[in-house]
Amino acid sequence: MEGFWEFFWFIFVCFAFVAYLTVLFSIITDLFRDRDTSGWVKAIWIFFLFFIPFLSALIYLIVNSDGMAKRSMAAAQQVKHAQDTYIRDVAGKSPAQEISDAKALLDSGAITEAEFQAIKAKTLV
């Protein structure tokens, strides 16, 4: 039975350590994401996070929780915007837009009816 409690304690300590590391990395990321805080203040926070870890992390979360959430949300929106832009650039034109462009070329006489039908068939496949 004693082995069970040792194992349970080991799992609990590992979980607490991983949870603390997650919080620590979140705080450090937020510190470098914060453009309003000066470099000296960031250095002081880092110093205290490494030498008085739990108390400093708790104080940082209490003092900066609102700003931390706003900066995290802004970073997520920036990543989403970059992904959406990349997807639109890679995806290219929609089939309807390609057919419309080909029709405009046909109407201007730049391509023949056969070429238009070939572009239309290729687009719809």
From TrEMBL:
Residue stretches spanning the membrane: 7-28, 40-63
Residues of the Cardiolipin synthase N-terminal domain: 19-63
Source organism, top-level taxon: Bacteria
Protein keywords: Cell membrane, Membrane, Transmembrane, Transmembrane helix
Ranges of residues in domain SHOCT: 98-122
Cell compartments where the protein resides: Cell membrane
Protein's recorded name: SHOCT domain-containing protein
Taxonomic source organism: Rhodococcus pseudokoreensis
